[in-house]
Amino acid sequence: MDTIEQTLAVATEHHRAGRTTEAERLYREVLAASPGHPDALHLLGVIGLQGGRPAEAVDLIGQAVAGDPTSPLLHANLGHALHATGQTRDAAVSFARALTLLTNEGEGWGNVSALAGLIRRYDDETRRAAAAEVDAGYAMGDVMRRHSLLFWLDGDIAHYEALTDAILEDPMRFTVPSIHYAFWGMAMQLFQGATRHGDPGAFHTGNLTDYYRLMVDETALRFHLRRRMKRATPRGEVKRIALITNQMLGAGHQPTADAFDFARRLQDEFGREVVIINPNAMAITGENGFAPEYSYNITEDYDGEQVIAAFGARVRMMSFPQKRFDEEKVNAIVDYVDGFDPDVIVAFGGSNVVADLFSGARPVICLPTSSGLPLSMARLVLGYGEADTSQGWPADMAERFRPFSFGWTLPPAGPERRRADFGIPEAGPLFLVVGNRLDQEAGPEFLALADSLLDRLPEARIAIAGGVESLPQRIAALRNADRVHALGDVEDVRALHPLVTAYLNPRRQGGGGSAAFALADGVPVVTIAAGDVATVAGPNFTVADDTAFLERAAALASDAAFRDRQSAEARARFAAAGDRRASVERLLAYGLEAQTA
What we know:
Layout: H1 4-16, H2 20-33, H3 38-50, H4 54-67, H5 72-84, H6 88-104, H7 109-120, H8 124-137, H9 143-154, H10 157-169, H11 176-191, H12 200-222, E1 240-245, H13 254-269, E2 273-278, E3 304-310, E4 313-319, H14 327-340, E5 344-348, H15 353-357, E6 364-367, E7 380-382, H16 395-400, E8 401-402, E9 430-434, H17 438-441, H18 444-456, E10 461-465, H19 471-475, E11 484-488, E12 502-504, H20 512-520, E13 525-528, H21 532-537, E14 542-543, H22 546-558, H23 560-577, H24 580-596
Parallel strand pairs: 1-2, 1-5, 2-4, 5-6, 6-7, 7-8, 9-10, 9-12, 10-11, 12-13, 13-14
Antiparallel strand pairs: 3-4
Helix pairs in contact: 1-2, 2-3, 3-4, 4-5, 5-6, 6-7, 6-8, 7-9, 8-9, 9-10, 10-12, 11-12, 18-22, 20-23, 22-23
């Protein structure tokens, strides 16, 4: 052939077509004519890796990288070869070099995400080494991408501290939508327990609280809201209530069902005029380089003013489904709320920016949908469970705290089902895991715990209810994969309750609703003493650590008398803590207090 380039082109065609013997011959022909040719060394190494010769691939691709250290592809494939030989730290560093090169070239999130995912599967020490490599080579001036990407790689809260410090120091460097997008990105990572190093609680009560306040103030200032809003005077009554939620997604979304239930009870059982404001103010489209990129869903059918119906009730709702957070959208929301002229605004859920924009003009009550510190500018901030306290909260928020119990309304139960209806054998103990975010929440530690439980109980099985994408692949790698059943979305999850031994809770913040419904149906809960499930279930169902978790689950499977006692305690717990009508009555009393607070 006339040139090295022509030979290489023919060789790669053979390679793509699977004719690796001919491709290898031509790659070696190129190397004979041009020793050290990076592309020929690289592709010859790829053939070695594909042929099960990873050590050879490391040598060849390593030589290619030495000849061309600026190629992200070469570094990435060297990482794959190193991983195949068990050299995980060196593999992670190679992936990090590829990631850094791509990022410095302005690459979008797709390939960067894939490389970050390869790094995140390693142990903490290896992930930190990779993050340090990225940090050392990062050449862009984008503090959003730099610090959020580093946190995504190694989970060190120091990166979020640096990011929030930069924004707090000079907020005018950033647009309002960009500030919001970064906030929701950090909040979601913290909610999903992504922190591996540092104290997320201290960050939440310190930097993130300051950031949230700045975000609300900057939004009001730059969107000129203070002079636009009408200021309400105390009225001594609560007749009209605006319930503002971050987003309404439909009946399958538990916070949506809860928001609807609070609104319909206020309206139908207590005679108040209620409107749900659905601003879709969480991040919907990417506004900056924050990593990982993400977006929340919207329900496009929820558009404008309408009446939504569920469970035999109808509630008025005003929705703003525009996929943006800008001055035009916020002004439209403000004008609608002022036109309704509520006596009190209920901020349904913490970090409810739209509700907090009204905090200087109208009485606002924060009704959290999760345990822990809810970021809020409301006049009153309620607890999530009766045992909640304001211990550890910032002083000004502690003064606004009031005791409360979120309460629950059971969804209707369908017809009786058998295990076979779900593709599960009838015999043996059956444990249930429920959640909407189990791809993130059922991490390696929980799957290892599940595997250990199934080792201990050879007849037992685990059912996982909730939409998942990546989890089934990780389940397939378990020793006892054949006894773990990923059911996907289950329309009537209560139909599973009579069939199971216990409800198992991964280490997570959420899950309160599914745990409450399990308790109501007499299903014992097993959970570490942290997060929403622990708050809902109470001390009789919490354990200290993973060892105690295994012991409790095994005891429920093997000791029928103990399981019966726990079942009775579960029903009693729901009866005591789950009365939503009492919660609504209490909310109205707080509404009066908020007018003069």
